[in-house]
Design goal:
alpha/beta, 8 helices
């Protein structure tokens, strides 16, 4: 099986670092024309320039801005075939006692991880429906299936919500040739937040985590990207509404 994306137009969010970058590069290598977006305007612009991609500065939680980026891509390219929602994360938060979590701390994580994915899917649905083809892939987390290693209540709840949204989008859009799936990554040292989390475990905690993984190693951004590339391809046309754990067997 040769996984190609020739002639496809893709948008990958959260592409200023880690997993988003690995996905964008993989899609490009498969023949897609790739647009990348991130809240970190300088970071995503530098990445795009170095790889021949098209960059967009975007706060995915801004519904109008999300729709504007999708409209701009559709107008420029004539289509949008693949949407990968990799933006999200913990927004600088760490695990705290439940009574210490503020209203804003709760909502900012939902805006980044759930709201943005919905606004972009909402905007992408019309051009995908018109074409009779679409691939939506959401980057969820193992925290969307069980309690989170981060200890952040909002992050766990948001990733569970993203899993639910993925399944609902599948039901709503599947009849139009649009699939919706999610990846639930295991622990990947792909950004500053995950690196800080890894260091906080100490040597003993790191060893325990690795020993809980069947393959006895941490994942990489490329491990996650490989699953996304398949789900975004023509080969995955009858896979929809699924959450694929890519975690070395830990789940």
């Amino acid at each position: 099986m040769h996984i190609r994306h020739d002639g496809r137009i893709a948008l990958v969010t959260g592409a200023a670092q880690g997993i988003g970058q690995a996905i964008a590069k993989g899609l490009q290598q498969g023949g897609a024309r790739v647009h990348v977006a991130d809240l970190d305007a300088a970071g995503v612009a530098e990445f795009a320039q170095s790889h021949g991609l098209v960059a967009h500065a975007l706060d995915v939680s801004d519904r109008g801005a999300a729709a504007g980026v999708v409209r701009a891509i559709a107008a420029r390219e004539g289509q949008l075939d693949i949407l990968v929602n990799a933006a999200g994360g913990v927004r600088g938060q760490v695990g705290r006692a439940i009574e210490e979590v503020s209203e804003e701390d709760w909502h900012v994580i939902f805006r980044a991880n759930v709201d943005g994915a919905f606004w972009l899917a909402q905007a992408a649905a019309p051009p995908m429906r018109k074409a009779g083809f679409g691939r939506i892939v959401n980057i969820a987390s193992g925290a969307g299936l069980r309690p989170s290693l981060t200890g952040i209540q909002a992050y766990t709840a948001a990733k569970h919500a993203l899993v639910g949204l993925t399944k609902q989008l599948s039901q709503d859009l599947g009849r139009f040739g649009i699939t919706s799936n999610a990846i639930a990554p295991g622990f990947v040292r792909s950004n500053p937040a995950s690196e800080r989390q890894w260091q906080s475990y100490g040597a003993e905690g790191q060893t325990r985590l690795i020993e809980s993984i069947h393959t006895r190693r941490l994942g990489t951004a490329d491990d996650i990207a490989a699953a996304v590339l398949f789900l975004a391809s023509d080969h995955a046309g009858w896979i929809s509404g699924q959450v694929v754990s890519v975690d070395g067997g830990r789940s």
